[in-house]
Amino acid sequence: MISYLKTKELTQQQLFELYEDVGWTAYTKDIEQLQQAVQHSLSVITAWKKNELVGLIRVIGDGLTIIYIQDILVKKEVQNQGIGFELMQQILLEYQTVRQKVLLTEEAPAIRHFYEKCGFTSADKGDTVAFVNLS
């Protein structure tokens, strides 16, 4: 059974294990910075299997006019069980009055399908344009 908890109080080890499991190693190169980023996020909802952190979604923004879904990740062993969808639904409910809900992710059919199922429209299919500066 998976339980969900709104918390920013996560150990470096818990974060390291989750982010490493999904291959987000750019974050784990500076685990202290990742922990601080999580603690400074607007909102963090976590998914737990017993005492193991298996999922997380975190949001940055002002919480009134815009939120940016910075991270949503679920450990490989429990993917495709609705955990990511539930994390997203909880965040969208928490910020239902916010007009702009934004995220940036890589392109892949399964990823596109997941976000469309969550109610998002790709910028290439809507009236918006996306820009990014990766320098």
Write a brief caption for the model.
It contains five helices and five strands, in the order βαααβββαβα.
Please, could you describe this protein's structure?
This protein is an alpha+beta fold and about 140 residues long. The protein has one domain (about 1-105): Gcn5-related N-acetyltransferase (GNAT) (Aminopeptidase, 3-Layer(aba) Sandwich), CATH 3.40.630. The protein is built from 5 helices and 5 strands, in the order βαααβββαβα. It has helices spanning about 10-20, 25-30, 30-40, 85-95, 110-115, and strands at about 1-5, 45-50, 50-60, 65-75, 100. A 5-stranded mixed β-sheet has the order 1-2-3-4-5. The longest helix is centred in the middle third of the chain and has 12 residues, at about 85-95. It is globular and about 45 Å long. This is GNAT family N-acetyltransferase. It comes from Candidatus Enterococcus courvalinii.
